[in-house]
């Protein structure tokens, strides 16, 4: 019986309602307001693919029109809803020592019309593919972690083609921005909104940018940013710059200390760490902060990782190691967002639709993150069980709260609708192809 104390369907129902109620006032009409709540609930549901068709069927709608209208034509501000969801997250997870973690993730796509899509490198595939890339900001504290903001990345091939942008609904004022610039925008937005945070963390795609690092220092935000092994580290007051891997190779054995970067699925994540606090900045030598280089060595393979660090006040090695270890939370959030709430399953092409779908997916992810955190707080000691994960929470939410519609007539109507729609689409494709072939 004690093992079930953390399973609290009544509390989870309150969390789901609370997240949806937080942004309910952003809709001027009751129909899109109800559709948005049903959309978030559907993203949590145990359905095969999280598209408008499946979400509408799950919600009991006769057709997908309401869900499609919510993403395309309904009047509501996705950024305002994002702000409301972020407020709910901060109310539950807020901590002045929290870490803002930025990273990107890609979704493989076909065709050329989906906003931001082109052949580009994505870590999702580990190679260059036709893909759409989004840059995200996560929030991680001792209370929990999840994603709080998003930006779609527009390559130069898009921003230089205004007709293409116009066709995808990209606002005229949107110009090219690097991924690190998008990350800086999200961090600035969070801090300006009063989100409590003391640190930023990111991988080397962001850490190698001196402009990004300077931006964080301007906000007096401490950082632990991964950099490449070839990164030039300024030493001796900036008079010399030495490659990070060369510095590591010349360190004596006593310079390394074994510490845990936090608990992982297989226990504490122990690495050997070396810390050089004689580093200077390569951009603003009078910033008054504390620059350092942190080096991590895998205890089994000897693989090295390097971090540029800065703090407005003196920090300890333990603090920097903690922040470096927290960066993995954004990867966990990506995995949960895609595997549990369908972040990568949208079938939308336009700018507004991407932001709307993604925002509602972040709302669904927030529900899971908060429910998992509540379950951890309520869990008795020594149950012999691992803590409830967001994956398990979603399974239990489906078992206890979201009851799938089993009405046979409803299922048959949807089966007929899908087949009819697909037949019309096929005929339209055949006609279009025939017309193209007949053109001189």
From TrEMBL:
<dbReference type="Pfam" id="PF13546">
    <property type="entry name" value="DDE_5"/>
</dbReference>
<dbReference type="InterPro" id="IPR012337">
    <property type="entry name" value="RNaseH-like_sf"/>
</dbReference>
<dbReference type="InterPro" id="IPR039365">
    <property type="entry name" value="IS701-like"/>
</dbReference>
<dbReference type="InterPro" id="IPR038721">
    <property type="entry name" value="IS701-like_DDE_dom"/>
</dbReference>
<feature type="domain" description="Transposase IS701-like DDE">
    <location>
        <begin position="23"/>
        <end position="233"/>
    </location>
</feature>
<protein>
    <submittedName>
        <fullName>SRSO17 transposase</fullName>
    </submittedName>
</protein>
């Amino acid at each position: 019986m004690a093992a079930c104390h953390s399973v609290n369907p009544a509390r989870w129902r309150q969390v789901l309602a609370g997240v949806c109620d937080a942004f309910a006032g952003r809709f001027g009409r009751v129909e899109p307001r109800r559709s948005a709540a049903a959309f978030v609930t559907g993203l949590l549901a145990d359905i095969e693919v999280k598209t408008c068709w499946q979400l509408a069927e799950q919600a009991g709608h006769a057709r997908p029109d309401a869900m499609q209208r919510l993403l395309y034509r309904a009047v509501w501000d996705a950024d305002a809803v994002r702000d409301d969801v972020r407020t709910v997250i901060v109310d539950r997870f807020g901590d002045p020592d929290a870490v803002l973690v930025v990273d990107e993730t890609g979704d493989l796509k076909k065709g050329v019309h989906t906003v931001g899509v082109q052949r580009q490198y994505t870590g999702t595939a580990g190679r260059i593919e036709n893909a759409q890339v989004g840059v995200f900001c996560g929030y991680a504290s001792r209370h929990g972690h999840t994603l709080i903001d998003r930006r779609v990345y527009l390559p130069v091939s898009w921003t230089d083609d205004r007709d293409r942008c116009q066709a995808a609904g990209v606002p005229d004022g949107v110009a090219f921005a690097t991924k690190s610039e998008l990350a800086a925008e999200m961090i600035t937005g969070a801090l300006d909104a009063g989100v409590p945070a003391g640190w930023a963390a990111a991988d080397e795609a962001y850490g190698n940018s001196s402009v990004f690092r300077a931006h964080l220092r301007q906000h007096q935000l401490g950082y632990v940013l991964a950099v490449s092994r070839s990164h030039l580290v300024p030493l001796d007051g900036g008079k010399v710059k030495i490659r990070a891997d060369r510095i590591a190779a010349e360190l004596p054995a006593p310079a390394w200390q074994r510490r845990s970067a936090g608990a992982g699925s297989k226990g504490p994540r122990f690495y050997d760490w070396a810390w050089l606090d004689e580093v200077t900045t390569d951009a603003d030598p009078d910033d008054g902060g504390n620059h350092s280089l942190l080096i991590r060595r895998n205890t089994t393979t000897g693989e090295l990782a390097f971090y540029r660090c800065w703090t407005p006040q003196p920090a300890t090695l333990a603090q920097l190691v903690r922040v470096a270890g927290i960066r993995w939370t954004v990867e966990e959030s990506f995995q949960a967002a895609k595997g549990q709430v369908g972040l990568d399953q949208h079938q939308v092409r336009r700018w507004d639709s991407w932001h709307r779908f993604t925002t509602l997916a972040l709302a669904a992810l927030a529900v899971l993150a908060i429910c998992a955190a509540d379950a951890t707080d309520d869990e008795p000691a020594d149950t012999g069980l691992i803590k409830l994960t967001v994956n398990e929470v979603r399974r239990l939410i489906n078992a206890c709260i979201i009851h799938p519609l089993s009405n046979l007539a409803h299922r048959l109507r949807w089966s007929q609708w899908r087949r009819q729609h697909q037949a019309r689409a096929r005929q339209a494709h055949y006609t279009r192809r025939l017309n193209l072939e007949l053109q001189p």
